[in-house]
Amino acid sequence: MELCGAFQNRLFLFSCACFSGILFALVWRKYEQTVQISSIRNHYTSALRRPNYNEWLRKQNLTSDFIPEEILRYSDDIDKPELESSFLYKNIQVLCLIFVNSHNGAEAVKQTWAKHCNIVTFFGRFVDEKIPVMKVPPVTSFEGFCYAFTHVYHKYEGQFDWVIIADDYTYAMIENLRYYVASLNSSFPYYLGHPVKDFSSLYNIGSAGIVLSKGSLSLLYSVYSTADDCRYKRPPSWYFDQSIGKILHAFSVHPVDTRDSYLRGRFNPFPVETMLIPGSISVFSSYWRTSAFLSEEGMNCCSDRAITFHGLLPSKLYLMEFLQYHLNVFRNSMRGIGNQPVTDQSKSNLNKKSVSSEMEQVGEPFVQLVDRNWVRSNNLKNLKRQKTIVENIWNELFGS
Fold first, then answer.
1. Which of 72, 159, 30, 97 lies closest to 358, judged by CA?
2. pLDDT digits (tens, 9 = 90+) for 374-394
């Protein structure tokens, strides 16, 4: 009996210890979410939460003008407009440097979000001439990254403004990236992503995608510029994301808070469904412990203009692409074209391909860009026309 009682006491103590540990983990996670844990965050600016896109657009002497969806898709009675996303595609050159782990993953990225990049390069531990994939050492190592980025720098120097580094488990919205960085000078060193803590400094974790301006890439190139440098120079860390952070730290280039003005994440290290459903991220995940700038779980997890999600299998990449660029929701519209009889011309238009190849590449935003001077002159014409109508009505009612 005494032996049985001692065992029960030990079991009770063990259960209490386990319960206390779980309770402590829950409290610690909440503490990480709500309290500024480390003073190192205060060293970094939060100025990149809200890009000055509209101000940048005004400096281009342009303004946005809404286009009803049915006009863009079916009407042929207007000149082809300059779409906002097309303008950004031409003026904000993005190179996508993608590390792949499998042939299926590489093919899925190529057929989905890589189409929206200006330049695409694939690197992996295998050769695939069809995609194509260039072989490098382990894709998570700095040596593999070094071979890849020096190759890209030599081949495409002067042809890009920004580089996004991601893998084949990532889905990236390149249009949102262009919108985010449009107002920034890419010649300056910018280092964007999801910052995590590493002892006394921060670096952007590779799983959420890393964005470098050409200014930052030139700093990396000043240290590692040849294949021999990649092979023989000892990197700060075996992992490429940590090494990038440490090298740029030596040049006083640091990660910044890339959340939006509502503190919702732009660079997300998990799939969208994991971020959306509270409790999906384990309480023991390093995400809570190391993330420098946390976002809420649930519907407020992610920015409306999120740039990356990570942890997606090839099938999910195709699903994301379909939902983003091909699924259309029927809406009411300014023109009310659905309330008018269908003409023979409308029928022929419906049978035509409704979206141009350029729009397939950059998505289908229903906003055009127009010259601000044209808007001003057009507004003056409208005011004069309205004034004339009012004067005519006045004269008819009261005489001249």
1. 72
2. 556 666 666 666 666 656 665
Provide the pLDDT for residue 152. Answer: 96
CA torsion, ordered 229, 232, 233, 238, to nearest 10 deg: 110
Rounded to whole angstroms, the Cα distance separating 311 from 209 reads 11
Residue 77 to residue 143: CA distance in whole angstroms: 56
Reading the block at residue 205, the tokens are 């974790």
Q: Which two tokens stand for residue 266?
A: 């732009």
Parallel, antiparallel, or unpaired: how do β-strands 308-310 and 210-213 relate? unpaired
How many CB atoms sit inside 10 A of residue 64's CB?
14
Tokens of 363: 């998505």
Is 50 exceeded by the pLDDT of residue 32?
no
d(CA 77, CA 337): 14
pLDDT band at 283; cut points 50, 70, 90: confident
pLDDT value at position 331?
Answer: 64
Q: Structure tokens of 228?
A: 């021999």
Model confidence pLDDT, tens digit, residues 241-272: 999 999 999 999 999 999 999 999 999 999 99
Asked if the bond preceding 132 is cis, omega within 30° of 0, the reply is: yes
pLDDT at 353 over 50: no
Torsion of CA 119, 123, 126, 128, to 10 degrees: 0
pLDDT band at 293 (very low <50, low <70, confident <90, very high): very high
